[in-house]
User: Fold this.
Amino acid sequence: MLEVINLTCVRGTRRLFRDLNFSAHEGELIELRGPNGSGKTSLLRILCGLAAPAAGEVRWNGQGIRSLAEEYFASVAYLGHQNAVKDELSALENLRISSAVSGKRLDNREARRILSRVGLSEQQNLPARVLSAGQRRRLGMTRLLTSPAKLWILDEVLTSLDDTAMNLSREFIGNHLQQNGIAIVATHQDLNMGGARGQRLQLS
Amino acid sequence: MFGWLVWRDLILAWRRRADVLATLFFFIIVVSLFPLGIGPERETLRTIAPGVVWVAALLASMLSLGRIFGNDYQDGTLEQLLLTPQPAYLVVLAKVLAHWIVSEIPLVLIAPVLGVQFGLSQNGLAIVVVSLLLGTPVLSVIGSVGAALTLGLRAANVLVALLVLPLYIPVLIFGSGAVQASVTGSSPQAWLLLLGAMLIVSLVFAPWATSAALRISVE
Assistant:
């Protein structure tokens, strides 16, 4: 369970939000909404432990994430604005190497299966620099499929994806929630997750 | 995971080998300029050789510091690396090791060839190699602190030089001291031991500083 207690975020001299409180339980979706510059990305980066809040605390299963450090990182998958895709490597190499670096080795067959799942079968041996923005996004999404993380933190997952890929990411999030995962998603589009439990959080 | 990260960086370096070669040629050219500028007088060349080789090595390795974290920072890989369940210390160590293999080992290998231009004896050339082998990892690991602190800043290259070059001074003194000792016929052992001590101390402490700096930079 993720708890957010009296969280305050300051960027430069501007206070983005103060005394934010919410919690996310197993199987819940937190949909984060708000205009540009309202602090969605800052909040997500605090939640995954990349940034420190000005005040307040984030707790994972009752313990502060700052003290858990690596133990917490093992339960988080973060998909930010950048896809963490290496231009010089092929799609297949990107997937296999990034997954091995974060601790899960994939053999060639598994990696191919995952790539075909996100619709990149034909591009698997192309260097990532020739992929389109949407294809790179899809490649970034494979991180979610290989990671054993319970908490997904997703920043604008739907940007530059076509309809098929949008539905695919909805399906991934849905499956994850069904397996008692937690997803925190910042988005401008409607996620339309149907029956998902959870709440919508509006930043202003 | 450590091995995979090193392996990944080696593949990436291989696919961008022009960058690596540029640093190597910089080293070769800087070292070769001195005999041309100073003239062929054997004694003078032999006296300046240790300093020239070492100063050139410092400058060349400084040129490549931006590559340790720069690309990973730009495409978002760095934040993913910091979110892996391994300690950031190991991530830093893996990247520093890869940087050393890619950018410093070639300098070490080419240095004896360049040393011949200065009329160094066989023994002198051997000490050049040994001192560089001990000293260049220190350059990489100390340099990584500067590289991490200046990530994403404008004029990062100049800042890195200002931050890191003063910290390189002890390495320069011990490294060129060792070569100088062998040129003048005394034993370089004490200098090499000091270099080795610096290597151990910097390997233990600098990656902590680097990982703290990385956390600040990605925030």
